[in-house]
Amino acid sequence: MQSPDNNEREVLADWVEAVAETGDRAAFARLFAYLAPRLKAFLRRLGSNDATAEELVQEVMLTVWRKAASFDRRQSSVSTWVYTIARNRRIDLIRRESKPALDPEEPLLQPAAPVAADTVADEARRDAALRAAISTLPPEQLDLLQLGFFEGKSHVEIAELRKLPLGTVKSRMRLAFSRLRRAMESYQ
């Protein structure tokens, strides 16, 4: 690929700035006429077929039209800016194409089987029984149970937080579980 000389670089930059500042369609048409065949050849060398290369050129040039104001001739040449856009669009296209299609028969995508009404009612009664059993716990056991299971704190963290010996925390938790287990066994 032959790169434009300094004069051509300035002209290209002037065209992009004209597009950015005033939406100059004539400047964009000249820019398109200059860059489109070069971009297509570039994309073909990267492995795109004719149709894909043409589609990508259209996308790139549309991006140039929309993002012309973001071009800064002090940071790069127009060619560098546009070829980077083209390369990135091609990479995006390859990524989209390489994602596997979803299999509608995939078990994880199937709706869950409806739960039988008697099961729902049974679970509601069990939950109510558990809540009732929890409400009968002594306050010191209930507090530790809430810290451990609803706030996710470890025994060590609970001991530090409540300023209790670790053994006390463990024994109160064990007593709470023992009470809950007995209450739930009688529910069964």
TrEMBL record:
GO biological-process terms attached to the record: DNA-templated transcription initiation
A Pfam family of this chain: Sigma70_r4
Database matches in NCBIfam families: sigma70-ECF
Ranges for domain RNA polymerase sigma-70 region: 31-98, 133-181
Name of the protein this chain belongs to: RNA polymerase subunit sigma
Lineage: Bacteria, Pseudomonadati, Pseudomonadota, Alphaproteobacteria, Rhodospirillales
Family under the similarity heading: Belongs to the sigma-70 factor family. ECF subfamily.
Record flagged with keyword Transcription: yes
InterPro entries (UniProt xref): RNA_pol_sigma-70-like, RNA_pol_sigma-70_dom, RNA_pol_sigma70_r2, RNA_pol_sigma70_r4, RNA_pol_sigma_r2, RNA_pol_sigma_r3/r4-like, WH-like_DNA-bd_sf
This protein's UniProt keywords: DNA-binding, Sigma factor, Transcription, Transcription regulation
GO terms, molecular function: DNA binding; sigma factor activity
